[in-house]
């Protein structure tokens, strides 16, 4: 398998960490969605990352769809998410909140880096969305006693939240507030201490 995209993307990193935790071997091509767009276009007309090229040449796009395939390959007993039922629904919702937050954080980066004139209205909206999601995730985590979001072992929800938080911290340091979102800060610290998170990482750099 070939994973295309840089690990300063919360979406690419999330997939890279899942690949690493599953123990699947893969080649990493750290292509930038902007400066390497032409190379990415040979695999993905959207020129977006992550893009995963399977061994037979089939190309998967969208982090959620890529992880769905990896979970299937791993099998229900090893998958990083419950197979069905309430726990699966709740985990998918945490993942959706985290990736939605990451979408808004990425959008703010593009707004500031790529637009000659930024929109205060858009910046305020994205900022409010990010803060509300952080409040919701903090409250959700407070109601869960285990070391990980859904029990004794790390899962997609933990990874998605940590990747979004790390991106937010690196890309928007002014939004950090460990007093308000203390459980999330502790969650990020616990994840970043793991080998998989240390190995699958790259310093943040805005598009140029
Ligand atoms: N919904 C997508 C989001 C991926 C995404 O936003 N990737 C960014 C990098 S962080 C990208 O490729 N941006 C270039 C673009 O959207 O044109 C996913 O989950 O895979």
List key phrases describing it.
208 residues, mainly alpha, binds glutathione
Structure report:
It is a single chain. The protein is mainly alpha-helical and 208 residues long. It folds into 2 domains: 2-74, Glutaredoxin; 85-198, Glutathione S-transferase Yfyf (Class Pi), Chain A, domain 2 (Up-down Bundle). 55% of the residues lie in helices and 6% in strands. It contains 8 helices and 4 strands. It has helices spanning 10-22, 37-41, 63-74, 85-114, 120-142, 156-171, 182-192, 195-199, and strands spanning 2-4, 27-29, 51-53, 59-61. Helix 1 (10-22) links the parallel strand 1 (2-4) and strand 2. Helix 4 runs antiparallel to helix 5 and helix 4 (85-114) runs parallel beside helix 6 (156-171). The longest helix has 30 residues, at 85-114. The chain starts with a strand and ends in a 9-residue tail after the last helix. Bound molecules: glutathione (GSH).
Mean pLDDT: 97
User: Largest sheet at a glance?
Assistant: 4 strands, mixed
Envelope shape:
globular
Strand portion:
5-15%
Summarize the topology.
Elements: E1 2-4, H1 10-22, E2 27-29, H2 37-41, E3 51-53, E4 59-61, H3 63-74, H4 85-114, H5 120-142, H6 156-171, H7 182-192, H8 195-199
Parallel strand pairs: 1-2
Antiparallel strand pairs: 1-3, 3-4
Bound molecules: glutathione (GSH).
Question: Summed up, what is this model?
Answer:
The chain has 208 residues and is mostly helical. Helices cover 55% and strands 6% of the residues. The chain folds into two domains: 2-74, Glutaredoxin, CATH 3.40.30.10; 85-198, Glutathione S-transferase Yfyf (Class Pi), Chain A, domain 2 (Up-down Bundle), CATH 1.20.1050.10.
